[in-house]
Every structure is written in structure tokens, then in C-alpha cells.
């Protein structure tokens, strides 16, 4: 059994959807695929993508990203927590899963989250351009820290049992997974990349391998005993920071 990872497939782009369709129907039948968020904000397309992947892999494991919870095209009365419930239902009906997976001495744990500004406070420029501030809606009074706490409370309690523990999230668990070459103009996005709470959570279940997405910057780095892997497919033009392929992160 091999474990593959990808994130940020963004199938609203025709080229990205075509890549999903091009994956082998036979090569991965005994394997697991982690999809670390940002497929589409359209439920119909999400069902198609996860269903297509579920036909190709033994198991598809998913957590939603920020794009998956956009409600800007869903009318004025739906909020992003309601969208999360709809996404969760689509995941199940498509044959994928958001539950902890155990097999062959491997435990794979999903970690839900949001960004809580533990990586810095957003400035006015970021608040003006970051699409989530317009495309997501939350219950009255919710701040980003409340959203992070809400999703964190949904994370499953898993006791380390001696197996290999792999965790995955859409959002970044720590800021130093970002490479040093990121230009200063792009660092303005750092406040909305993730939450330091995630790193505490993954370490509490003794994870030694964590998959994340969101930044679109492909990277593998080991910090304090945990290997962090980002294999974002990314937007069609992001060939300089994305490998545009599946990556095997574990084999047993």
C-alpha cells in the first residue's frame, strides 16, 4: 500500500480537471490518496472530482480548504459552516472520507482548521484583496480565531498506538515551512496561511509526517522530528512552484 498526496487541485480550471481524468484507472487500486483541500466551491464539481479519484484509489481522504467553503455563488443566506456540512455529505456520497484511516500499521488523521493570525495580523491591503473575506460568510460575531477553534473542536481524538501516524490539513501548521526565497510582496499573505494550533495538534498524536496545502509552494522539510510535505497542484500557470504530479509520501 502506497500513500500519495496532493492538494489545491482547483478543478474549475479545465487543464486541472483534465489531469484528474488522465490518472490511471488501474495503477493505484491498492493505494491511498490524501487530498488536502481546495478542489472547488461547486458541490457538483466536488462530487465529480472525488468520485473520479475514488474509482482510481483504494481510499481517498479529504479535508476542505478555504475555496471549498466559499459561498459567494450559493446565495445570500448560506454561511460557510453550512457549506462545510454540505461538503462533508458530498465527500461521503462520492466514496471519499474525512475520517481517520487505519491500515497496515498506518494511521492517517485529518486535521480541520482555518487561519487565526498566529502567523501575523493582516494589514488593510490584505483585507482588501484576500477573496475569503468576501467569498466566505460566518455566523454573526465569528472572528477568524472563532472559526479556527470551531474546526479544531471537530478534530477526532486519536491516541497514538505505536503505528506510523500521518496527519494532514489544508492550512499550514507553522510558518517556517515556507522557504526563505519567498519575496517580501508575497509574505503579505502569511497571516492567512494557517495556524500554530495545528502543529500542537499533530504533535499531540505523535505524527511524524504531515501533509498540508494552501500555499501552492511545493516543499518537503523536516523540523523537530516531523516531515512536512506540500504537493499542491496549483493554478495552471504555477509550473515554477508546483510539480503537477502525485507524490508518494509513504509505502508499506
List the helices and strands and how they pair.
Elements: E1 2-6, H1 14-22, E2 32-35, H2 43-56, E3 59-62, H3 80-93, E4 101-103, E5 106-110, H4 124-129, H5 132-135, H6 144-154, E6 164-168, H7 196-204, E7 209-212, E8 219-223, E9 226-230, E10 247-251
Parallel strand pairs: 1-2, 2-3, 5-6, 6-7, 7-9
Antiparallel strand pairs: 1-10, 4-5, 8-9
What can you see in these coordinates?
- This protein has 252 residues and is of the alpha/beta class.
- The chain has one domain (2-251): Purple Acid Phosphatase, chain A, domain 2 (4-Layer Sandwich), CATH 3.60.21.
- 27% of the residues lie in helices and 18% in strands.
- It has seven helices and ten strands.
- The protein has a six-stranded mixed beta sheet, with no helix packed on it. Strands 3-2-1-10 form a four-stranded mixed beta sheet, with helices on one face.
- The protein is globular and about 50 Å long.
Offer a concise description of the structure.
The protein is of the alpha/beta class. 27% of the residues lie in helices and 18% in strands.
Amino acid at each position: 500500500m502506497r500513500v500519495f498526496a496532493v492538494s489545491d487541485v482547483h478543478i474549475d480550471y479545465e487543464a486541472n480537471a483534465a489531469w484528474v481524468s488522465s490518472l490511471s484507472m488501474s495503477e493505484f487500486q491498492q493505494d491511498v490518496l490524501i487530498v488536502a483541500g481546495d478542489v472547488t466551491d461547486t458541490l457538483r464539481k466536488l462530487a465529480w472530482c472525488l468520485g473520479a479519484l475514488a474509482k482510481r484509489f483504494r481510499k481517498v481522504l479529504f479535508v476542505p480548504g478555504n475555496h471549498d467553503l466559499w459561498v459567494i455563488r450559493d446565495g445570500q443566506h448560506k454561511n460557510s459552516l453550512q457549506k462545510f456540512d454540505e461538503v462533508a455529505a458530498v465527500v461521503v456520497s462520492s466514496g471519499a472520507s474525512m475520517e481517520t484511516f487505519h491500515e497496515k500499521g498506518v494511521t492517517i488523521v485529518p486535521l480541520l482548521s482555518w487561519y487565526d493570525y498566529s502567523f501575523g495580523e493582516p494589514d488593510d491591503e490584505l483585507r482588501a484583496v484576500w477573496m475569503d473575506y468576501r467569498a466566505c460568510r460566518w455566523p454573526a460575531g465569528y472572528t477568524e480565531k472563532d472559526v479556527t477553534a470551531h474546526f479544531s473542536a471537530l478534530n477526532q481524538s486519536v491516541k497514538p498506538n505505536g503505528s506510523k501516524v500521518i496527519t494532514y490539513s489544508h492550512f499550514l501548521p507553522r510558518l517556517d515551512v515556507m522557504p526563505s526565497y519567498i519575496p517580501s510582496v508575497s509574505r503579505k499573505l502569511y497571516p492567512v496561511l494557517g495556524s500554530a494550533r495545528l502543529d500542537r495538534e499533530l504533535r499531540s498524536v505523535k505524527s511524524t509526517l504531515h501533509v498540508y496545502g494552501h500555499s501552492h509552494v511545493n516543499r518537503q522539510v523536516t523540523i523537530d522530528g516531523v516531515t512536512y510535505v506540500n504537493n499542491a497542484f496549483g493554478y495552471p500557470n504555477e509550473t515554477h512552484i508546483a510539480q503537477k504530479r502525485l507524490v508518494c509520501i509513504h509505502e508499506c
